[in-house]
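pasting for ref
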Amino acid sequence: MAVMRLDHHEHARAMTGHATRFVRGALDLVLPPQCLACDALVRAPGTLCHACWDGSVFISAPLCAACGVPFEFDQAPEALCGACVRERARINRARAVFVYNDVSRNLAIGLKHRDRTHSAPALGRWLARAGR
């Protein structure tokens, strides 16, 4: 029978992980995680509630290669919208995560004017994906 032994560093990492989960759980009891857009209670910090997730309209292809405005029909990846064809020199490349609506408005205003910097990691991940 093989006996598995943890060295000091592995044991310390395991204990740190347990302590982190315990503290996170205790903190969630005192200050439960809230939706980034509407403050409804959610299961995990840094997430949206079901209603806000369902109300989020993520922008994806097909879209204008320059300004990122979504197209209603399939287009070539390098296709430009009418405004960018007319004024090409103004924008090289711009992207947005969401179509502007109540959910995206609440997220943006919360970050900009309500000091909700805890939403920055999620918004950053979404923006990085939109920028690819």
